[in-house]
Design brief:
The complex is a heterodimer. By secondary structure, chain A is mostly helical. Chain A contains six helices and no strands. Chain B contains eight helices and no strands. Classes of the chains: A mainly alpha, B mainly alpha.
Chain lengths: ~80, ~190
């Protein structure tokens, strides 16, 4: 897999606990990560970048709407959605 | 600006929860809306992990297909957004590992076939015969172009570039053709 973010940012992006900490407030992981960042303040810039990506606050990647539509059509075809329902 | 974003995010999260609950209760139209709501976010996230756009699209498709097929088993999932992100991340990692692993398996398989043990050879031949019959049967489920592309890629082990020339298609179309063929084979095999 080719990373197109810093290795440290990448490590946060693939960490399940970090993803839950950012995305899911019910995960109760704030204490764990607050403690981690107090011990490793050097990791904060990378964590913040990963947080922005997970929250969708970075510039969106250019992709055509038709590509998403094509993917959706394919998913529905494979799942046989309409004939099943 | 930040407040606008927070409001938008909260509304999206609420919408996501409503749609996901509806989907878990059997509302299939909610599945379509969940896709529309989250596909952009997933693509933006995945693009930070890989620059292979086709692999990323394939993995996103697989994630939604899995969710649809396992919709009766999603009761424990509370947050669909984190579930989607983690599923996509796992899928991308699996696919990358698989690509590395596949080359090792091929070497091991060659060793096994070269065994002098007669019984093993017989069993291997029988198994291969059964596999070939199964594959031939499965290939009839595909469109002629899908079948040709898959035969060229997996059986004749041609490169994408060669297949493009033979089928007079561009690179992207060949990849899509093979991917769709494989998805169809997978769904038929289940």
């Amino acid at each position: 897999m080719t990373n197109i973010v810093d290795k440290q940012t990448y490590e946060f992006l693939i960490n399940d606990d970090f993803i839950l900490y950012v995305i899911d407030p019910a995960s109760n992981l704030c204490g764990k990560w607050d403690n981690f960042f107090s011990l490793h303040p050097d990791q904060l810039p990378f964590a913040n970048e990963a947080k922005l990506i997970l929250e969708g606050k970075t510039n969106p990647i250019n992709i055509k709407t038709e590509d998403f539509d094509e993917m959706k059509t394919e998913i529905f075809k494979v799942c046989d959605v309409y004939s099943n329902n | 600006m930040e407040q606008d974003y927070q409001t938008k995010t909260t509304l999206q999260d609420q919408k996501s929860i409503i749609l996901f609950n509806a989907f878990k209760n059997g509302d299939i139209s909610a599945f379509s809306k969940l896709y529309d709501l989250h596909v952009g976010m997933l693509y933006n996230y995945g693009y930070r992990l890989t620059n292979d756009a086709e692999l990323l699209k394939d993995c996103i498709q697989d994630v939604f297909i899995k969710i649809y097929n396992k919709r009766t088993e999603l009761e424990a999932v509370q947050n669909i957004k984190s579930y989607l992100i983690i599923s996509l991340k796992n899928k991308l990692c699996d696919e990358s590992r698989k690509r590395i692993h596949l080359s090792d398996v091929a070497v091991e398989e060659l060793d096994a076939i070269s065994s002098d043990n007669v019984e093993n050879n017989y069993l291997a031949a029988e198994k291969e015969k059964q596999n070939n019959e199964f594959i031939s049967h499965m290939l009839t489920k595909l469109s002629p172009r899908q079948r040709k592309a898959i035969e060229l890629y997996y059986i004749e082990e041609r490169k994408y570039e060669e297949i493009c020339e033979l089928l007079q298609m561009n690179y992207q179309s060949v990849r899509n053709l093979i991917h769709r063929g494989m998805l169809k084979l997978r769904s038929c095999a289940c």
